Structure formats: C-alpha cells, structure tokens
Predict the structure of CoA ester lyase.
Amino acid sequence: MTIRPRRSALYMPASNLRAIEKAKSLDCDVVILDLEDAVAPDMKAEARANAVAAVKAGGFGTRELVIRVNALDTEWGAADLAAAAGSGADAVLAPKVSSAEEVGRYHAALSSAPAMGFWSMIETTRAIFRLDAIAEASAARPACWVLGTNDLAKEMGAKLTVDRAPFLGMMGLAVAAAKGHGVGVIDGVYNVLDDQEGLEAQCRQAKIFGFDGKSLIHPKQVEPANRLFGPSEEEIAWAEAAIAGFAAPENAGKGAIRVGGEMVERLHLAEAERIVAMAKSS
Ligand SMILES: CC(C)(COP(=O)(O)OP(=O)(O)OC[C@H]1O[C@@H](n2cnc3c(N)ncnc32)[C@H](O)[C@@H]1OP(=O)(O)O)[C@@H](O)C(=O)NCCC(=O)NCCSC(=O)C[C@H](O)C(=O)O
Ligand SMILES: [Mg+2]
C-alpha cells in the first residue's frame, strides 16, 4: 500500500515570492499556492503568473502542489482555471464549492487536464447540507476536501474557539461524506500564530475525527501537524500486533482476536495496514 501523506497543507499567497521559495525547504506534505482570499484584487494577475511559474520551475520535491483558484463566478475564475490546468500542478482547489453541479462545472473547465486532481473548499452552509452529493461528484477525479472554518464562521455568525464547538457536527459529517466516496479530507486552519497549544489541541481533535491532516498558514505550524497526524509509536505497535495476530496460524479463520487488552476484528486490518504504510511513507 502506498500512501501520500497530507498531514500538513501549507497555504501561502501566490503574490508572495519569498514564501513560495521558502516552501521548498519546509517539511509540509502539501503546498497550496493561493490566488483567492490571501491575494488583493490588484495582485490577482501577478499571483496567477507566479503560481504557474513556480509549479513549472519545480523544486518542491515530493510535496503535493495545489493551486487555489478564485471561484468560477468571479472575474478571475476562468483565467485562473485555464492557467492552473496548464501548469502541471497536482490539483486545483476551488473555494466555496456548494453543490454537485458546481463540481461538474469545474471538472468541465479542467477537461484539458484529465489527470489533474480537483479539490474543494467545504466552507459554505449550503455545502454542509449537500455533502454526500458533492463527495459523489468529486470522486470522478482525484479529490480532496479542505474545510474552510473562517468562511463557515463568517456565514454562521459563529465564533472560532479552540474547541470548535459550533463546527463539531459538520466536521464529523464532512469526514463521513468524504471517506464514504474515497475523497481525502483536510481540517481547517488555526488563525492564531503564537498559540502552539491551541494548534496542537485542534490537530489532536481533527485526527480523532478522521481528518487526514490540517491546513496551515505559517511554517511553524508544520512540525506539530506532521507529528500529531502521523502515526504515534503506540498506534504503530498496535497495528503491527494486529497484523501479526491475524497472520498467526492459530488465528486462521477467526474474525476477532485479543491484541493486548483489546478486541481486534478483521475489519480493523485495513486501518492497521494504513497506519504501517503511513509510518513507512512519512
Ligand atoms: C499570517 C502571515 C501574514 C504572517 O506573516 P509574517 O508575520 O510576515 O510571518 P513571519 O515574519 O513570522 O514569517 C517568518 C518566515 O516565514 C515565511 N512565511 C510566513 N508565512 C509563510 C507561509 N504561509 N508559507 C511559506 N513561508 C511563510 C516568511 O516569508 C518568513 O520567511 P523569511 O523571511 O525567509 O524568514 C503569513 O504567515 C501568511 O501570509 N500566511 C498565509 C496566509 C494565507 O495564505 N491565507 C489564505 C489561506 S487561509 C484561508 O483562506 C482559510 C479558508 O479559506 C477559510 O475560510 O477558513
Ligand atoms: Mg475561505
């Protein structure tokens, strides 16, 4: 099993050449070159050109390269999509995706790049009530969702607390819908730059929910995300014991066995194999 980890997905404004250059030396799994909210209107064209040039120039190693475009219904959307489609990036990330039909429009706009991934920001209240349909439509291409808690909070009038009480229901639903259709899913950003404790609490919470990783806004957020979304020593030990347990001749034909102090069923083997593969690839 090969796994492409997405523990840490670092955004940067594509108008910021220094940040783009710095990303090449950072240990993030995903680089998101942003053309949307982090870029002022008068810098949009320059940011688009920077993003395409950076992807074409390369130097990002195994990091997954994603361009976040402006929405198709904005004055920049069509040009962003066309440029991203020809860039060679691993995926395009579209903001505020709110319906399966919208996913279809983006897929059509990317028809010249059939292998390119299409990722969606899940950050509108309308999307929350259409998650299963959006996930089903998304799965026609390599897909991943990124939660946009800033936009959700804005629309809902909710507060962005560390514990994210207003968002817990939708976090669980987003993970369930995404995973149900084989779509990746990455948690939203933590805006506070000087609170590693709060960031770590959100990483632990998101991992428990089943998110693959966290979207990030600053280099110093990368190490905690990698550490906390990667498998812990305890998880690796459990996974190895579960795999060895089911491989043992005395357990042939058994659907459930004891591993340490816990019941492990055959249905847990897939998770055990994923943990071991993740440990090898990160
Ligand atoms: C938040 C920032 C504006 C802070 O900038 P600044 O105070 O200038 O940072 P530092 O001085 O601490 O930077 C130290 C060095 O690190 C580099 N740096 C900083 N941020 C990044 C980054 N994101 N990627 C790569 N490199 C970065 C600086 O260049 C410094 O390097 P050096 O000079 O060599 O020492 C800034 O961090 C920032 O712009 N962050 C990203 C903002 C962004 O992209 N926002 C959009 C995505 S978030 C979003 O939209 C969420 C979603 O849609 C939702 O709805 O929730
Ligand atoms: Mg947003």
